[in-house]
């Protein structure tokens, strides 16, 4: 093993983004510890695990966590649909997260399970902050003194809260909005290579999905805006209505194997991702930093991309917030599109799908993946100006 070098880094959260960041830092010889509150990596699962082929530039897709390869998507509005060719993967999140945790450890990172980050407290005399981690097995509180803390602690990030509270002093505090995702894994009768997306009032503010694992099992889910939950139907009602729609389409759905739920953070363009507090550097990345595509809720590819940039910015002592400028531009574009789509009625979605269902438009959609959204949207706008006019009219 390489000799460990300063600075000392504490990563909070052994999700995919924390472990990927740890892997790069530890490989460089930096002293890296990961603190994970759960006993088991990759549990509980709340993810559909669909990723574009852009993931291959970041993580080697291994047969041990690859569940299915998809070659098409069918997008439904209330009265019509369009089928597109594409090339995507469905992964097993439990095995994927464990693979990344193993890579982090193999490169020298130390992983502490059942260790919950609590925050920090100030020492009485020298004002130096110790971070507090609770060993959930012995119930002991451990004090640590790393130079750098990376919050990869998911949508309810404690580290993001520390950065945000510090910004509150400067009146820069932001408030994260969430979608609530509800998903079940069902046995039934499915088209193995094709996933479905259902737009419109069946799932207001987001969409419903059917992602096959194989011919007989699929991940079926919906998401709704968290803050609107009280005004609207509950996620359970929307989920039940969605299942009814899928069954009406002719899918045999026999039995729910398991049920999952989780939060999807909405990208916040003005969120502070780095703060120096009493000499210690705090960073956030992944869901903790809301690095999620607001169009689809996909957080794996953008989170891993930002994790790579964060690790490299620590190694090369560059500015993380500047390094991820391009990722931020992409995520802003997804947010703008989401806000536009959320103004669409069922009739608007029918019209949109008819506009997309032209040979040259389909070709653009099929040959450009949604992780390079700006390129995709620019090509679409030039090829079919009515798409632009349509969006602007609704905005
Ligand atoms: C229903 C649903 C479906 C989704 N489907 C997809 C999809 O198909 N494709 C896709 O790309 N994305 C999808 N996502 C989003 C994706 O799951 C996230 O973007 C991804 O998990 C983010 O990884 P992360 O490591 O940032 O956070 P997480 O995976 O949330 O990991 C954070 C880790 O931090 C730990 N932690 C939290 N607080 C503490 C603490 N105080 N101390 C110690 N440990 C702590 C947690 O236990 C957890 O292990 C979906 C999300 C949901 C909810």
Count of separate DSSP helical elements: 11
CATH superfamily heading of the largest domain? FAD/NAD(P)-binding domain
Fill in the CATH topology of the largest domain: FAD/NAD(P)-binding domain
Shape: globular
Task: Provide the β-strand percentage band.
Answer: 25-35%
Can you tell me the number of structural domains?
Answer: 3
Instruction: Tell me the series of helices and strands, N- to C-terminal.
Output: EHEEEEHEEEEEHEEEEHEEEHHHHHHH
Small molecules held by this entry: flavin-adenine dinucleotide
Biggest β-sheet, characterized?
8 strands, mixed
Question: In which range does the helix fraction lie?
Answer: 25-40%
Instruction: Give the neighbour order of strands across the main sheet.
Output: 3-5-4-12-13-14-11-15
Helix and strand content put the structural class at alpha/beta
CATH class of the largest domain: Alpha Beta
What are the low-pLDDT stretches, counting only 5+ consecutive residues below 50?
A: none
Tell me what the CATH architecture of the largest domain is.
3-Layer(bba) Sandwich
Distance between the termini: 56 Å
The average pLDDT is 90
Number of strands: 17
Rg from alpha-carbon coordinates: 22 Å
